[in-house]
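Lab notebook, page 48
Experiment: co-folding of the full assembly
Goal: obtain a model of how the components sit together before planning crosslinking
Operator: M.T.
Materials (sequences as entered):
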Amino acid sequence: MHQTKVRVAEDALDANTTIAHANRADFDRESVSVVNLMSAPGAGKTSLLEAVFRSGLGDVRPGVLEGDVQGSLDADRLSHLHVPVTQLNTDGGFGGECHLDANMVRTALPSLGLADIDLLIIENVGNLVCPAEFRVGEDLKAMVCSVTEGEDKPLKYPLMFRTCDLVVINKVDLLPHLDYDLDALLRNIESVNPGVETMLISARTGDGVEAFRDWLVHVAEREGVPA
Amino acid sequence: MHQTKVRVAEDALDANTTIAHANRADFDRESVSVVNLMSAPGAGKTSLLEAVFRSGLGDVRPGVLEGDVQGSLDADRLSHLHVPVTQLNTDGGFGGECHLDANMVRTALPSLGLADIDLLIIENVGNLVCPAEFRVGEDLKAMVCSVTEGEDKPLKYPLMFRTCDLVVINKVDLLPHLDYDLDALLRNIESVNPGVETMLISARTGDGVEAFRDWLVHVAEREGVPA
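Observation: model returned without errors.
Model output:
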């Protein structure tokens, strides 16, 4: 029975990858670079984007696709900053999906105004497991990891840390108040994803936010990077 | 297609509920009370259990079932405290399940030594979505919500907060260092689950841990509470 379950899951992931390629072709046609931004709930994805949009992205025209189980709290926060935001809710007839998949993103494409943006940031549902399993047509994956979550998360959720091209370590302003071993976190990240880029930031104080902003501008400028 | 997807999910949940009832019958036969403990990654479930086990549960004999995608870091932490711990990993041929379901728990029953414990604490996978959808045969559900995650989480993950019988608000020692509106959190919890019990604790300093300990003892003592 377990074998069957694994096979069903693999088939679902194959179907997802096919749709992700279709999304990708549409993004490429409009020269839009796409970042899939993931994290645990409350790690600070939206706060980070607020900090970035407040200082601006220069000539890069950003857009955001907000994935949430329910509501539009994050979209409301970002739309105050005059960035085009589309809300995608994952709640269906039952408790709600814990991740975005390629088909959900596909249904949102007509609302995204791809012709008028250069960079699409997809803020995924807060979850360290399933969002890492479903490609949505992105160029790159980035994750936000808060120092309040403990140093062990790369070892407990290895796929998430392994699939990301960038790990943003957030809330470093709280380090003096935590029993936290930052070197252990960096070692754990390195053990599951050797050589992956990391940055230390505080979305709250603004420290290090510019490095993430520069990374986004860099992603937006290399249009059509292969997936 | 969406309708089909919802129906498949509902069928899966029905099958899960049937197995959860079977688990429950086994727990009842051995007079074991069961708490399903949930939270986002890094909210402090294991730290809370460590704090409780350090001070002890009086005459109540606890056992723990640890649910993780991969590894046994939390089980190792708890087994140092001389509590019987069984590890359950959810990683299969793909990225891993983001929650425990009734069947996974059922496979672990023979390892749990039910005859020798009064209270089983099931530490679920860190995730605010799917663990709330799958009953595993528990008497009560409790969740840990860290103040570092922001006040909006009850509105963004309403099913999790709605299904819980207790919300433990952890890391209150960090409140002086956060821009955090505790009253807003309590209002948001009340809006999705009116009257639910809450407690303020710091697993790190030990403040308030005794209230959670007393709650566990109380659960263990009312054997055979209807699901």
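Interpretation: The longest strand of chain B covers residues 33-39.
Next step: discuss with group before ordering constructs.
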